[in-house]
Design goal:
2 helices, Alpha-Beta Plaits
């Protein structure tokens, strides 16, 4: 049986996404997402039509950011270790928020069809 590594992260941004304090984070989104997309074992990442998950709001809080990904490789971060370092500059762990990494069985069909 083939398993994939799935992870979800929820963090509190240090300011609203459009604020000065988050400008560096927003400026690097395309770079970080492209790195994820071409990482060995990349399967999927949570994103909207904008190509990222920064505007998803699962909580009634504009400063809560959510991310999710799946990889066919059992590595802690499919991005080669960069996002935890990058993320800590602009986010704090949201008290009581889930941070989860699990192995899962891939679906028998793609989520899109």
């Amino acid at each position: 049986m083939t398993l994939q590594l799935a992870q979800v992260n929820v963090a509190r941004m240090r300011g609203p996404l459009e604020s000065e304090v988050m400008a560096g984070f927003v400026a690097r989104l395309d770079e970080i997402n492209a790195l994820a997309d071409r990482s060995p074992g990349f399967v999927w990442r949570l994103q909207t039509g904008e190509g990222n998950a920064t505007y998803l709001r699962p909580y009634d809080d504009d400063r809560t950011a959510t991310s999710g990904s799946a990889s066919s490789r059992r590595r802690t971060w499919p991005y080669g270790g960069s996002p935890p370092v990058i993320g800590r500059r602009w986010t704090r762990r949201r008290s009581g928020s889930p941070v989860s990494t699990s192995t899962v069985r891939p679906p028998s069909r793609s989520p899109s069809g």
